[in-house]
Amino acid sequence: MPWWNRYLGLTNQGWYQFFGNQTLKGEIRYRDFYLLMPPGQTLTMAALTFVFGDLVVAHELFGFFGAIVPALALYVWLARLFPVFWATTAVVCTMAVYLRRCSADTAYKAPV
Known about the structure:
The protein has one domain (3-106). 65% of the residues lie in helices and 0% in strands. The chain has helices at residues 15-24, 39-52, 56-81, 84-106. The longest helix has 26 residues, at 56-81.
């Protein structure tokens, strides 16, 4: 097994995939385990695990495409309204803010 498909260190310590696996085992969220996120994320990870198995790369590629598709849609929309340079600059800046916000929202925060 290649190194990139062996460990769960690529995302938030594997919480999403862990909760998806718990759902596949028949555990019920909020009753059998504490859920740190909306249930849609757990159901998505359960579906990906059901279809692709425990391959970490499948979950990572799903997240990658989840970021690429809005970027491409934004670029196509902006390229029709503005020059290519400005459309590209706007998409790069928007995706940098979007990806930074996503990583900050899902990072563990100690209780206050």
